[in-house]
């Protein structure tokens, strides 16, 4: 593929050199030339314009539907920009462990993760919000991200300790984020803005009521984490059911749970000290919806009577300070699913997937700094 | 193969049939891929769906690009038309090499980028590809930026390519497009044919 191979070089007399006289050729008239130039310009306009329109560059901001960048920007507006950290759930701790499947999940899902056996896990405990060094408080939303490394791929999930999600749509979440931005003077959200938001979003009011009925547990070790969004599970016979999963602690109510303390990282410190002595266990519970149960609205709980399957034990054996290569660098994208699990009509997971990807790309490109929670310091 | 079996004196008038078929098969794939790529990064609700198309389509483009490179190296090209000067010929050649390079490299960057982010390279259902880069968020960041830069470069090269061919075909009316046509053309052959008469 040298340039000369079809360049009509000096020794290549036959290669395409024509004499200037071309009787067969259509005469170039001014009219046809103008039409031709018009066609070229028309193509260029449609081509460049179409590309720019698809990328959202031609739409004014006020008309632009929510975008992943717009979401990431809003997190930065509310919490400030903290280079190298997640836009949300910025404060966290990496974890490792395993999932020992008892095989019961295989009845409703063909994914390899539910066959009897054990798969390694990477996890991340976190606190909601974009501040990587916020002080631990009992009522701050807690998160657990998990990555199941199965033979047929991966399963990633990002869960929180709320029984329902406060918003049913990405738009609702986007608006609530701004409405709950603390005012500089009071350190609390503007009551009028919040009241106006809640007036427009009765589903959030209803969800908040349910959330208040389930006060947070003492620490991470006895926290139940909920997947919240419904997914379709398909078994090897091809039968499909809607499922919401949760991760339920075996440690619930044990003595020695942490008390809210003035120590800035008391929730994480307690988790680190407990895991230095023994592993922590949770059950992976699959709750099966019935016809009529909402699959597209994470603010609405399913009836308590729904059948659930205990699919096995999640054991966290160790935690690590966030650093290169561990859970710090994993995007717990809720749509990384194994074959056998597919998204439902819930509008939240696609938006989460898109925004997590934007957040991941931004923090990947930014300089990194050490995380607040440091395992070695806590144990020394 | 087609041109070289006979007398080497007569150059082919058109691109070889496999070249023309590959060209018109890949063109819609690449245009669709560019549009999907630019749409998905700005889309909240369609991002996963578009990404699920973008991944296997990228792998398909890579496979076609490899076949096309082999085809390119084993077939003779038709000569340039008289309507192209030496500078334009040089630009045409180098832009062709640039397109080949981008069509090969851009899917590989996408694949490596997902590997560096530790994502599974899911194609269809349970079918997935192995990773081809170390799990490293800094490597991901570099590849992710390269993927954007090369996407713009590919778009610009494509735009210049089409504009140049349209200019020749519609303004100069030299039948340049006929050389790549899979359809019957009015002209018996583009004008370079006349020298051999």
**Which shape of chain B, going by the Cα principal axes?**
elongated
Ranges of chain A with pLDDT <50 over ≥5 residues?
1-24
Number of helices of chain B: 4
Helix content of chain A: 25-40%
Quaternary structure classification: heterodimer
Structural class of chain B: mainly alpha
Rg over CA atoms of chain B: 20 Å
What gap, in angstroms, lies between the N and C termini of chain B? 23 Å
Which chains share the greatest interface? A-B, 71 and 64 residues
Walk me through what this model shows:
The complex is a heterodimer of chains A (380) and B (197). By secondary structure, chain A is an alpha+beta fold. Chain A folds into two domains: 28-64; 88-165 and 216-359 and 367-379, Catalase core domain (Catalase HpII,  Chain A, domain 1, Beta Barrel). Chain A has helices at 30-54, 68-79, 170-179, 191-200, 202-213, 266-277, 348-365, 375-379, and strands at residues 91-101, 117-127, 142-150, 153-160, 225-226, 231-234, 240-249, 280-288, 308-320, 341-343. In chain A, strands 1, 2, 3, 4, 5, 6, 7, 8, 9 and 10 form a ten-stranded antiparallel β-sheet that branches. The longest helix of chain A has 25 residues, at 30-54. Chain A is globular and about 90 Å long. Residues 1-24 of chain A have low confidence and may be disordered. Chain B is mainly alpha-helical and 197 residues long. Chain B has one domain (17-188): Fumarate Reductase Cytochrome B subunit (Up-down Bundle), CATH 1.20.950. Helices cover 60% and strands 2% of the residues of chain B. Chain B is built from four helices and two strands. Chain B has helices spanning 17-40, 47-74, 86-116, 137-172, and strands at residues 121-122, 128-129. Chain B has a two-stranded antiparallel ribbon. In chain B, helix 1 (17-40) packs antiparallel against helix 2 and helix 2 (47-74) crosses helix 3. The longest helix of chain B has 36 residues, at 137-172. Chain B is elongated and about 55 Å long. Chain B starts with 16 loop residues before the first helix and ends in a 25-residue tail after the last helix. Residues 1-9 and 193-197 of chain B have low confidence and may be disordered. Classes of the chains: A alpha+beta (380), B mainly alpha (197). At the A-B interface, helix 1, helix 2 and helix 7 of A face helix 1, helix 2, helix 3 and helix 4 of B.
């Amino acid at each position: 593929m040298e340039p000369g191979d079809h360049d009509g070089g000096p020794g290549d007399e036959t290669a395409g050199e024509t004499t200037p006289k071309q009787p067969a050729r259509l005469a170039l008239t001014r009219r046809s030339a103008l039409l031709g130039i018009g066609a070229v310009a028309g193509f260029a306009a449609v081509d460049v314009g179409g590309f720019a329109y698809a990328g959202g560059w031609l739409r004014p901001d006020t008309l632009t539907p929510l975008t992943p960048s717009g979401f990431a920007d809003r997190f930065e507006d509310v919490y400030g920009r903290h280079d190298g950290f997640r836009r949300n759930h910025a404060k966290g701790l990496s974890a490792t462990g395993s999932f020992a499947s008892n095989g019961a999940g295989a009845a409703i899902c063909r994914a390899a993760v539910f066959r009897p056996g054990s798969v390694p896990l990477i996890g991340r405990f976190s606190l909601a919000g974009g501040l990587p060094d916020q002080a631990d408080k009992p009522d701050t939303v807690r998160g657990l991200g998990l990555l199941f490394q199965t033979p047929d791929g991966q399963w990633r999930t990002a869960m929180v300790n709320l029984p329902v999600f406060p918003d049913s749509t990405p738009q609702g979440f986007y608006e609530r984020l701004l409405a709950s931005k603390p005012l500089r003077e009071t350190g609390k959200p503007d009551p009028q803005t919040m009241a106006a938001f809640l007036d427009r979003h009765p589903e959030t009011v209803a969800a908040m009521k349910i959330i208040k009925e389930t006060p947070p547990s003492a620490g991470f070790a006895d926290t139940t984490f909920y997947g919240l969004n419904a997914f379709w599970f398909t078994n090897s016979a091809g039968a499909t059911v809607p499922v919401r999963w949760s991760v339920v602690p075996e440690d619930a109510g044990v003595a020695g749970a942490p008390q809210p303390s003035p120590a800035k990282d008391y929730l994480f410190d307690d988790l680190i000290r407990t895991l230095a002595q023994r592993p922590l266990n949770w059950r992976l519970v699959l709750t099966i919806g019935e016809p009529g149960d909402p699959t597209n609205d994470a603010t609405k709980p399913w009836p308590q009577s729904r059948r659930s399957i205990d699919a096995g034990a999640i054991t966290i054996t160790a935690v690590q300070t966030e650093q290169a290569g561990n859970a710090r660098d994993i995007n717990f994208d809720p749509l990384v699913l194994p074959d056998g699990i597919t998204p439902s009509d819930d509008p939240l997971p696609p938006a989460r997937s898109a925004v997590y990807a934007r957040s991941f790309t931004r923090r990947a490109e930014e300089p990194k700094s050490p995380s607040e929670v440091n395992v070695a310091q806590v144990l020394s | 193969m087609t041109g070289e079996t006979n007398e080497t004196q007569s150059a082919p008038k058109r691109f070889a049939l496999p070249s023309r078929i590959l060209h018109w098969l890949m063109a819609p794939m690449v245009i669709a891929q560019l549009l999907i790529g630019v749409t998905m990064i700005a889309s909240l609700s369609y991002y996963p769906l578009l990404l699920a198309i973008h991944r296997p389509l990228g792998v398909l483009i890579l496979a076609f690009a490899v076949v096309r490179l082999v085809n390119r190296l084993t077939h003779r090209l038709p000569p340039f038309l008289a309507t192209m000067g030496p500078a334009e010929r040089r630009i045409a050649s180098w832009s062709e090499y640039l397109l080949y390079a981008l069509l090969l490299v851009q899917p590989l960057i996408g694949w490596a980028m997902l590997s560096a982010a530790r994502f599974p390279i899911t194609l269809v259902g349970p079918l997935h590809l192995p990773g081809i880069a170390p799990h490293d968020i800094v490597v991901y960041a570099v590849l992710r930026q390269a993927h954007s830069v090369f996407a713009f470069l590919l778009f610009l090269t494509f735009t210049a390519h089409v504009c140049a061919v349209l200019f020749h075909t519609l303004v100069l009316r030299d039948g340049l497009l006929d050389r790549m046509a899979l359809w019957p053309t009015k002209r018996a052959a583009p004008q370079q044919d006349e020298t051999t008469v």
